[in-house]
């Protein structure tokens, strides 16, 4: 892949940026296939089950996982893009920083977006199960979100995307560019989501820059995908918005 980038007429750095944009689009297409396939086959059978509702908003990550597996098989460089180990004390500290940093900074980001006329979109849907009041579903959330969905997404957008960018850019550039790709994903998802429209898609894309930067920087500091994956899963399961006033 590096040799290909070096031969591109517009330079390897531009080639790397185009490559990770392609990764984003490829992962999104794989995610759409997963959503449509599961919605047509599995959802009708289990739609009323609370266990399915816990993970129903994360069907796209099934496609992300399939895309990542296919990509890694194609490039045959698993060690280059998959960096995982048992968390050290430093990793745990960065996980906490990443998990808390996103909602704290996100409050200011949401206010700024609202101030420029981009209110948060509220697409229809059944909503998630209240996990705090449903402890029997915690194992489902742990397996579905912590062990699968979040790692699948982080493998693509931190592991593969940042792994590609890191070859040609410094840490700051790598983090900012990967965050932009992460924002692009959420913008495109918004465009494909009913009742979100362009303004809502732009809101999703811009608001994704905050976790993109924070999780991306945490990954660059630790080089352990467990760190951003855990922080990412916590953003789905821990009600930081309700807890922050008490911190």
SSE diagram, text form:
Elements: H1 2-7, H2 12-41, H3 43-46, H4 50-55, H5 60-75, H6 78-81, H7 89-115, H8 138-166, H9 171-191, H10 197-207, H11 209-222, H12 226-237, H13 240-243
Transmembrane segments: 16-39, 51-74, 94-116, 136-156, 168-189, 201-219
InterPro entries: Rce1/LyrA-like_dom (IPR003675)
Organism: Halobaculum roseum
Explain how this protein is built.
- The chain has 247 residues and is mostly helical.
- The protein has one domain (2-81, 92-120, 129-246).
- Helix content is 74%, strand content 0%.
- It contains 13 helices and no strands.
- Helix 2 crosses helix 5 (60-75), helix 5 crosses helix 8 and helix 7 runs antiparallel to helix 11 (209-222).
- The chain is globular and about 50 Å long.
Overview in brief:
By secondary structure, the protein is mostly helical. It has helices spanning 2-7, 12-41, 43-46, 50-55, 60-75, 78-81, 89-115, 138-166, 171-191, 197-207, 209-222, 226-237, 240-243.
- Shape field: globular
| pLDDT < 50 runs, ≥5 residues | none
**Terminal Cα separation, in Å?**
46 Å
- Radius of gyration, whole Å: 18 Å
What would you call the structural class?
mainly alpha
- The strand count comes to 0
Characterize the biggest β-sheet: none
Strand content is under 5%
What is the element string, with H for helices and E for strands? HHHHHHHHHHHHH
The overall pLDDT, averaged over residues, is 91
- Give the % helix: over 70%
Number of domains: 1
Given the structure, what is the number of helices? 13
Protein name: Lysostaphin resistance A-like protein
Domain CAAX prenyl protease 2/Lysostaphin resistance protein A-like: 138-234
Transmembrane segments: 16-39, 51-74, 94-116, 136-156, 168-189, 201-219
Keywords: Membrane, Transmembrane, Transmembrane helix
């Amino acid at each position: 892949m590096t040799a290909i980038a070096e031969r591109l007429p517009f330079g390897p750095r531009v080639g790397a940026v185009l490559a990770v944009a392609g990764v984003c689009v490829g992962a999104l297409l794989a995610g759409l296939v997963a959503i449509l396939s599961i919605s047509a086959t599995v959802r009708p059978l289990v739609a009323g089950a609370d266990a399915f509702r816990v993970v129903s908003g994360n069907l796209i990550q099934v496609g992300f996982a399939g895309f990542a597996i296919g990509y890694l098989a194609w490039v045959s460089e698993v060690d280059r893009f998959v960096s995982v180990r048992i968390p050290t004390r430093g990793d745990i500290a960065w996980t906490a920083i990443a998990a808390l940093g996103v909602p704290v900074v996100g409050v200011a980001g949401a206010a700024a977006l609202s101030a420029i006329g981009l209110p948060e979109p509220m697409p229809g849907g059944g909503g998630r199960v209240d996990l705090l009041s449903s402890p029997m579903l915690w194992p489902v959330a742990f397996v579905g979100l912590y062990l699968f969905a979040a790692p699948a997404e982080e493998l693509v957008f931190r592991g593969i995307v940042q792994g590609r960018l890191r070859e040609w850019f410094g840490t700051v550039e790598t983090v900012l560019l990967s965050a932009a790709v992460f924002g692009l994903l959420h913008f495109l998802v918004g465009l494909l989501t009913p009742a979100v429209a362009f303004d809502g898609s732009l809101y999703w894309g811009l608001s994704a820059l905050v976790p993109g930067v924070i999780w991306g920087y945490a990954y660059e500091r630790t080089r352990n995908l467990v760190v951003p994956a855990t922080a990412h899963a916590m953003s789905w399961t821990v009600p930081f918005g309700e807890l922050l006033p008490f911190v």
